[in-house]
Amino acid sequence: INPMRVYNFSAGPAMLPEPVLAQAQAELLDWNGSGMSVMEVSHRSKEFVACAAEAEATLREVMEIPDNYKVLFLQGGAFGQFAGVPMNLSAEGDEVDFLLTGDWSAKGIKEAAKYVTTNALVDEKPGNYTKVPPAGSYQVNPNAAYLHYTPNETIRGVEFGYVPDTGDVPLVADLSSTILSRPMDVSKFGVIFAGAQKNMGPSGMCVVIVRDDLIGRARTITPSPWDYAQMAAADSMLNTPPTFGWYLLGLVYKWVQAQGGLTAMGERNKAKADALYGFIDGSDFYSNPVQPDSRSWMNVPFLIAKPELDKTFVAQAADAGLTNLAGHRSVGGMRASIYNAMPLEGVQALIDFMKEFERTNG
Ligand code: PLP
Fold first, then answer.
1. Torsion of CA 204, 210, 214, 219, to 10 degrees
2. 8-22 burial string, b = 16+ CB within 10 Å, else e?
3. What structural domains does the chain harbor?
4. Coiled-coil region(s) at which residues (predicted)?
5. Which ipTM did the prediction report?
6. Active site includes 198?
7. Do residues 249 and 262 lie in contact, with contact meaning Cβ atoms separated by under 8 Å?
8. Residue 311 among the catalytic residues
9. 3-to-18, 274, 321 alpha-carbon distances in Å
10. Residue in 104, 197, 331 to alter for ligand 1 test, most ligand atoms within 8 A of Cβ
11. Alpha-carbon torsion (221, 226, 232, 233), positive or negative
12. 70, 131, 198, 272: which one is catalytic?
């Protein structure tokens, strides 16, 4: 890591791979021999269209996305898709199933309820969102337009270790905080969507991966830039896309590929998570409330035995070059987000800091 930089544990916008930022910096004033920044180039230019297509092609390779899926680069963030999905996949009066496992699935339900009847098949709120439901412990409504779940709940650090089996009911996944973190079988999903600003690039873009048979059913009220059919037909350029973000996503996808793809990312992420949870579990001073089989590889919330020291912990960590460790404002405590770009050395530096903090304050 460049000595100018810190280990940034933010949940998003989050740390990005340094080689990607270095390349973007080197090309900032003169992209592709154009004498312009990529930000100044027309999205209709041959060069940018090629750059956008290459980003998509690389993502397809990295995630092994089957040919019968479209990849869309949309605006409005992942939150936008809480409305975009029901607008595209349901008709008025339809029912939609949800797995309520955290704050983000709760927001998804609230938004979707404007368009459909929502059914939470499980509600993990009474247990403070500390686990995911075991596979097979809930009954999918066969008439549901789709089932929406959140494979990784960013705020509470709760992650599914399995993909729910929904039979013929399309499975919709909000993969915002875990996309590209490990291998996955895209063919099990109807729609995958993910905000870019955690494992993919800067904010301002939402990647939507949608199976062909689910395209073309949008309600007439659907804004055109969110209509999957219109956007697929226009290669996501019905209107002006966030060009810089799209370019940077392409660089990140190449970086993931160069690291060895999702298998290598998964091994690295597991090693990072194991190190941090192992340390927390072995300490009497730190604790993580999540059931071990439901713990996130990406977001690790933790508490200290003396909560009055939370602010001191966060401030001293920042002084040591370990930034953005405060927990989400709704839950308090601490949270370390350890996305793809966080190296094992960063996690090790955090563990060393935690040990020292416990020694002096424990
Ligand atoms: N879903 C999850 C799991 C998230 O973590 C977030 C943002 O942090 C969102 C949705 C909302 O994404 P956006 O801010 O891109 O709209």
1. 0
2. bbbbbbbbbbeebbe
3. 21-258 (3.40.640.10), 260-361 (3.90.1150.10)
4. none
5. 0.99
6. yes
7. no
8. no
9. 12, 26, 10
10. 104
11. positive
12. 198
- State the pTM of this model: 0.98
pLDDT at 3: 86
Q: How far is the CA of 79 from the centre of ligand 1 (A)?
A: 6
The CA distance from 189 to 65, in Å, is 11
| Beta-strand pair 147-149/171-174 | parallel
The 8-class DSSP code of residue 295 comes to B
What is the rounded distance in angstroms from the CA atom of residue 170 to the CA atom of residue 162?
16
User: Residues 104, 226, 255, 297: which is the catalytic one?
Assistant: 104
For ligand 1, mutation pick of 177, 197, 299, 328 (most atoms within 8 Å of CB): 177
**What does the pLDDT look like over 145-198, one tens digit per residue?**
999 999 999 999 999 999 999 999 999 999 999 999 999 999 999 999 999 999
Cα–Cα dist 271/281, whole Å: 15
Cα-to-centroid distance, 76 and ligand 1 (Å): 10
Between the alpha carbon of residue 206 and those of residues 55, 129, 155, 215, 237, the distances in Å are 14, 25, 19, 17, 14
List 174, 246, 254, 255, catalytic entry? 174
Residue 55 Cα distances to 50, 197, 343, angstroms: 9, 16, 23
Q: Is 104 noted as a catalytic residue in this protein? A: yes
Rounded CA-CA distance 95/298 in Å is 31
Q: What is the pLDDT of residue 293?
A: 97
- The Cα–Cα gap between 66 and 210 comes to 10
The CA distance from 164 to 27, in Å, is: 43
The closest of 150, 159, 163 to 270, measured between CA atoms, is: 159
- Beta-ladder partners of 71: 209
Give the dihedral of Cα atoms 195, 159, 121, 110; nearest 10 deg: -30
- Atom number in ligand 1 closest to CA 79: 16
Residues having CB within 6 Å of any atom of ligand 1: 12, 77-79, 104, 150, 154, 174, 176-177, 195
